[in-house]
Amino acid sequence: MKMSKRTKNGGKKLLALCTLSLVFVFACTAPLPSVPMPSVLSTVSAASFASITITDVQPMGFTPGETRELQVTVKNNGGRDAKDIRLAFQGTEILSLVGPTVLHISTLNSWSSKEVPVTIHVKEEAPNGIYSVPVSVTWREYYFDPQKGYVTDPEEKTALLGISFNVQGSVVLNVGDITTDPTDIRPGSENVEIRAFIENSGEAAAKDIDVQLLLEDGSFTASWSGTDRSYLGRLNSGEKSEAVFHLDLLESTTSGQLSIPLRISYKDTSGQDYEVLRELVIQVKPKPDFEIVSYATEPASIGLGSTGVALSMTVRNIGSEDAESASVRMTGEADVPFDYDVKSDFVGNVDIGDEGEAIVKFDVDDDAVPRVYPIGIEIRCTGDRDLGDDNVYIFNKELKVEVSPGSSQKGGFSLPGFEALLSALALVLVVILLGTRRIRI
After folding, report:
1. Residue 234, pLDDT score
2. Are 237 and 64 a contacting pair, CB within 8 Å?
3. pLDDT (0 to 100) of residue 270
């Protein structure tokens, strides 16, 4: 059969169309070439799910023993909404939750965030460092399905998160109450017991605490070895312990409120060494004090067997308080060859800076060895009763008296060659009397 021209042309068109169709189908079913679009694909994949994270915590700094409320920012970092979100905070040895430990958020839309309050307590004496609180999070996804509408994914999602805090505490050691025994301490007091409380008002613990008084000005000395130091050991935050010292006060110690430097050495809980300086403030009350300004004997030169020797002396109150009923007394010395006729003398009241005089009398033994002899002098007085000071004070002093070789001097007054002078005067008087008698005859 002979085909028509029209039919022939139609067959060619059909063949071309079929060929193009096969090429198109092959092109559509063939594997696509690798296209560098990982970021776009990842974003699309991530956007398909809900992802709960913690993005911020404020504040992040704590001190040992502190309890504080903080704000935790919870974010849905995904493309689907989340519902029934539960955050379970787990306490640790150092950090613990105050109040509810599980927080609930009903819904959290995609890419949105919400702040939830959490109260944290830090353990007392917690060492300095960074600590974390584990947080277990669960939620369900909530999204729109074109066929079912809004649905909740029956599978529960979980994540383990955490929040971290910086714990930074310090030791603060100060001097608290101070007591002394005796209560009234004055210049010259010995073996004074001083008790001072050392308090840790910081947030961290201190250990190996050693307290030492710095006795630099010379007003105080340790009563015996080691009594200017006190070892306390460990002090936790808020604790205190008593340091005990025993000191002697010099007679020259100034009365009034005195400060003694105090050095406190300690370690923190990590073993780091520290040292701080504090002051120990005590009250030293005034008292009289005496010195011998001058003295002299009458006669000025005394020898073996001298009798009625008068020793006069001037005393001055150099203390910080008026003296009442002051008196001077000779103290017996075993090797001094003196026999006292008047051993003491009453001086009376002597105000600060004023002077008083006293006179004692003695005889020198005939067999005394010519030399310089030390004589003990005891000055006794009471304090100023107007100031409530009824104490009796005794001050021991020493004088030196020289016994010269030669004849004894009798009486309370003598000069060298006085007897020869008397003899010459007697001879002149006899001559005059004889001459007068002759003239009368």
Report:
1. 94
2. yes
3. 81
* Paired sense of beta strands 240-249 and 302-303, if any: unpaired
86 SS3 class: strand
CATH assignment, 46-167: 2.60.40.10
Distance CA 337, CA 369 (A): 8
Q: Which amino acid is at 401?
A: V
CB count within 10 Å of CB 323 equals 29
Cβ 291 vs Cβ 346: under 8 Å? no
The residue whose two tokens read 């306390």 is 232
Distance in angstroms (rounded) separating the CA atoms of residues 351 and 404: 38
Query: CA torsion, points 417, 419, 424, 430, in degrees to nearest 10?
Result: 170
Give the model's pLDDT for residue 57: 92
Distance CA 322, CA 383 (A): 7
- Say which residue the tokens 């970021």 belong to: 39
Q: Rounded CA gap, 1 and 7, in Å?
A: 12
CATH number of 173-284: 2.60.40.10
Count the Cβ atoms, other than its own, within 10 Å of residue 74.
23
Identify whether the C-beta of residue 245 lies closer than 8 Å to the C-beta of residue 228: yes
* Parts of the chain with a pLDDT under 70: 1-47, 407-441
Which stretches of 214-308 are assigned E, i.e. beta strand?
220-222, 229-235, 240-249, 256-267, 273-284, 290-298, 302-303
Residues 317 and 293: their CA atoms lie apart, in Å, by: 10
Backbone Cα Rg of the chain: 54
- Ranges of each domain in the chain: 46-167, 173-284, 290-404
Q: Which residues contact 17 (CB under 8 A, 6 or more apart)?
A: none
Dist CA 353 CA 319 (whole Å): 8
- Preceding omega of 299 cis (within 30 degrees of 0): yes
Q: Is the peptide bond before 288 cis (omega within 30 degrees of 0)?
A: no
Give 221's strand partners: 248
Domain 290-404, what fold?
Answer: Immunoglobulin-like (2.60.40)
Secondary structure E strands in 43-147: 52-58, 61-62, 67-76, 81-89, 95-97, 102-108, 113-122, 129-145
All residues at 6 or more sequence positions from 135 whose CB lies less than 8 Å from its CB, including other chains = 54, 87, 88, 89, 90, 160, 161, 162, 163
Query: With contact defined as beta carbons under 8 Å apart, do 179 and 166 qualify?
Result: no
Strand order in the sheet with 67-76: 52-58, 67-76, 113-122, 95-97
